[in-house]
């Protein structure tokens, strides 16, 4: 039974959540502080150049001056981490997906990860300060050296404790977040089907699950963040490229699948289309690439074409279709399974066109279908040419030929 929310409580919650924007000026203040450090850096550099040109710079002075410059740069780096990471975590998401200069930590930053990175940055700055003291040891008291060393070791111990504690904390937080993720009416309606599908998969092997030994390159075990993304993606089952039976399809592009397994197509905002008869492994490969994308730090959302149609139709009926398409931008990869298995009316075909057009050159799609793109007019009608043009423009189309894995297993069982 659906839970009825109190409108007053909901409004108050949104209002309190909106107060996060009060923090935005604080980050602009840190930007100004970074400008101060830029001024300090060039001032120290100019002083060092003048001392070297005049011949008054000793070796010790040069080392101390360079360490000061390094110190300023490291603090400026710390500021960048706080500005970008803190703003992304506590104020509003920064849309840098696919940017060539995106920091590797930005896509999965959270408050615990940010604390650990800040702690390690502080340890680095403390190391530079301690090195300055040892370089200028003749002008540094033993008392100052002792306490400098003790403080530095305290920073190291604190960073180690934070790093040790952040693992379970992140896993617990992400698990709770995944469990509390709000479901749309379409996903709620689809859950009984997914539950039945899961029960069937426990009772018997999945039709597209192979029995052959793995041949594709193996992937390292994902971390807690990746596991949370995999759980939130809504995959019908966990499929891996290593488990795909390469010997079952009569023909498919193994090199293309291995290349796609690196998940670079998500960063490049390219699409993937798996085409082939039922039971040839299209869903297996789509889910496996989705798992790889989750392990690479990307958020993924999986649903069948019928489920996507219901979700978009509900959004249109509620007058929030544009908002729904924009919200899906938070997922760099969407997977649309079983295109062509269910006939679509013109209005629903138009919704799919809007989805593909909205994500064109903006984010990635993986689509599985039982018919080639040239026959998609049988599914989408007049919308098909424009839809396939945008979908295939930046896409890898992988054709799988062969008999159904389900039929083969049923025939084998009958023969036995």
Q: What does the model show?
A:
The protein has about 425 residues and is of the alpha/beta class. Helix content is about 60%, strand content about 5%. The chain contains 16 helices and five strands. The chain has helices at about 5-20, 25-55, 60-90, 110-135, 140-180, 185-205, 225-230, 255-260, 265, 280-295, 305-315, 320-325, 345-360, 375-380, 385-395, 405-415, and strands at about 270-275, 300-305, 335-340, 365-370, 395-400. Strands 2-3-4-1-5 form a five-stranded parallel beta sheet. Strand 3 (about 335-340), helix 13 and strand 4 form a beta-alpha-beta unit. Residues about 175-215 and about 410-415 have low confidence and may be disordered.
What is the approximate shape?
elongated
- Total beta strand runs: 5
Number of helices: 16
**Which runs of at least 5 residues are low in confidence (pLDDT < 50)?**
176-214, 410-416
Strand order of the largest sheet: 2-3-4-1-5
Percent of residues in β-strands: 5-15%
Element order: H for helix, E for strand = HHHHHHHHHEHEHHEHEHHEH
Task: Look at the helices and sheets and give the structural class.
Answer: alpha/beta
Question: Approximately how much helix is present in the residues?
Answer: 55-70%
Intertermini distance? 46 Å
The biggest sheet, with number of strands, parallel, antiparallel or mixed sense and barrel status, is: 5 strands, parallel
Mean pLDDT: 80
Report the radius of gyration as a whole number of Å. 28 Å
């Amino acid at each position: 039974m659906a839970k009825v929310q109190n409108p007053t409580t909901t409004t108050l919650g949104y209002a309190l959540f909106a107060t996060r924007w009060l923090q935005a000026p604080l980050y602009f203040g840190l930007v100004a502080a970074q400008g101060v450090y830029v001024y300090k850096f060039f001032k120290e550099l100019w002083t060092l150049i003048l001392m070297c040109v005049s011949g008054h710079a000793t070796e010790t002075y040069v080392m101390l001056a360079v360490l000061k410059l390094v110190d300023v740069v490291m603090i400026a780096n710390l500021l960048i981490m706080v500005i970008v990471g803190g703003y992304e975590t506590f104020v509003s998401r920064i849309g840098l997906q696919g940017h060539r200069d995106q920091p590797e930590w930005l896509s999965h930053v959270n408050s615990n990860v940010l604390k650990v990175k800040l702690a390690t940055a502080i340890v680095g700055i403390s190391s530079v300060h301690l090195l300055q003291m040892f370089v200028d040891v003749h002008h540094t008291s033993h008392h100052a050296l002792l306490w400098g060393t003790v403080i530095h070791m305290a920073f190291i111990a604190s960073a180690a404790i934070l790093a040790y504690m952040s693992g379970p904390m992140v896993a617990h937080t992400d698990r709770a977040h995944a469990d509390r993720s709000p479901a749309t009416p379409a996903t709620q309606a689809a859950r009984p089907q997914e539950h039945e599908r899961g029960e069937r998969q426990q009772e018997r092997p999945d039709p597209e699950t192979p029995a052959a030994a793995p041949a594709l390159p193996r992937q390292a075990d994902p971390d807690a963040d990746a596991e949370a993304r995999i759980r939130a993606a809504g995959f019908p089952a966990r499929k891996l490229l290593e488990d795909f039976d390469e010997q079952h399809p009569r023909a498919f592009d193994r090199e293309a699948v291995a290349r796609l397994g690196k998940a670079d197509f998500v960063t490049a905002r390219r699409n993937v289309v798996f085409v082939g008869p039922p039971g040839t492994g299209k869903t297996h490969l789509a889910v496996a690439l989705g798992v790889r994308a989750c392990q690479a730090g990307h958020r993924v959302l999986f649903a069948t074409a019928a489920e996507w149609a219901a979700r978009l139709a509900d959004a249109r009926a509620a007058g929030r279709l544009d908002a729904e398409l924009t919200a899906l931008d938070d997922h760099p990869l969407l997977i649309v399974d079983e295109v062509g298995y269910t006939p679509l009316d013109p209005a629903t075909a138009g919704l799919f066109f809007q989805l593909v057009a909205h994500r064109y050159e903006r984010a990635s799609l993986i689509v599985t279908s039982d018919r080639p793109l040239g026959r998609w007019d049988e599914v989408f009608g007049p919308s098909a040419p424009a839809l396939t043009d945008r979908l295939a423009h930046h896409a890898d189309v992988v054709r799988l030929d062969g008999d159904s894995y389900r039929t083969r297993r049923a025939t084998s069982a009958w023969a036995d």
